[in-house]
């Protein structure tokens, strides 16, 4: 009987500690920085190219505009992600919170189990570009908050995933062959035509 009583105390104690972790650490903050041997314009273009999301965002399946003007602040998207192979897909609603070309973009993601916000900063120096992320995730409800806190405390799960994604982005940017800013081609006839109003 005494053993059962002590076991009960232990279980209650563990439950209290579990939820206390969620109270003490309601949000998990993490991030990663890469330096690429490309211009800031190219780094920006590659990272914003929806057709390449699947090449650096682990588990990414699709993105669909649901409101607002594409790429603009306050636009919203339905994002489908497969967390692990064989696991069911889950849906997130992405909102563009803030955006300044060649400087930063802040995105907010809302799902059934969490709120996630990420800012990607861009800066250029001596022909190289820094791409740096600052991310925050918060579970919905005490159970999820405690789980997320424990996942990061004991396994660094969120940080590890961020490193994996951003290092994949680095490789994608440095191996990019897409010309996002082509120089307009002017044929000889157009070049020789006089401007309007000139004789």
Work out the helicity level.
Answer: 25-40%
Q: What count of helical segments does DSSP give?
A: 5
The CATH class of the domain at 25-58 and 96-180: Alpha Beta
Roughly what fraction of the amino acids lie in strands? 25-35%
Classified in CATH, the superfamily of the domain at 25-58 and 96-180 is START domain
Number of strands: 8
- Summarize the helix and strand pattern as letters: HEEHEEEEEEHHH
| CATH topology group of the domain at 25-58 and 96-180 | Alpha-D-Glucose-1,6-Bisphosphate, Chain A, domain 4
Low-confidence blocks of residues: none
> What's the CATH architecture name of the domain at 25-58 and 96-180?
2-Layer Sandwich
- Counting helices, strands and paired strands, the structural category is alpha+beta
Largest sheet: 8 strands, antiparallel
Radius of gyration: 23 Å
**Overall mean pLDDT:** 88
Terminal Cα separation, in Å?
108 Å
Could you give the topology of this structure?
Layout: H1 2-24, E1 28-30, E2 33-36, H2 40-48, E3 60-67, E4 76-81, E5 90-100, E6 104-110, E7 114-125, E8 128-139, H3 142-155, H4 157-174, H5 188-192
Helix pairs in contact: 1-3, 2-4, 3-4
């Amino acid at each position: 009987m005494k053993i059962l009583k002590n076991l009960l105390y232990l279980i209650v104690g563990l439950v209290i500690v579990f939820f206390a972790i969620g109270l003490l650490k309601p949000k998990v903050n993490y991030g990663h920085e890469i330096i690429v041997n490309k211009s800031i314009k190219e780094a920006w273009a590659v990272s914003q190219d929806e057709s390449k999301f699947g090449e650096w965002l682990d588990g990414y399946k699709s993105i669909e505009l649901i409101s607002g003007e594409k790429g603009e602040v306050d636009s919203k998207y339905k994002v489908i992600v497969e967390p692990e192979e064989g696991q069911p897909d889950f849906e997130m609603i992405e909102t563009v919170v803030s955006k300044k070309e060649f400087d930063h973009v802040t995105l907010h993601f809302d799902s059934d189990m969490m709120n996630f916000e990420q800012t990607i900063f861009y800066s250029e120096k001596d022909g190289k570009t820094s791409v740096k992320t600052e991310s925050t995730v918060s579970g919905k409800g005490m159970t999820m908050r405690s789980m997320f806190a424990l996942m990061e405390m004991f396994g660094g799960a969120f940080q590890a995933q961020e490193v994996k994604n951003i290092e994949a982005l680095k490789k994608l940017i440095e191996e990019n062959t897409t010309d996002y800013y082509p120089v307009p081609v002017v044929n000889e006839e157009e070049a020789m035509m006089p401007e309007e109003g000139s004789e």
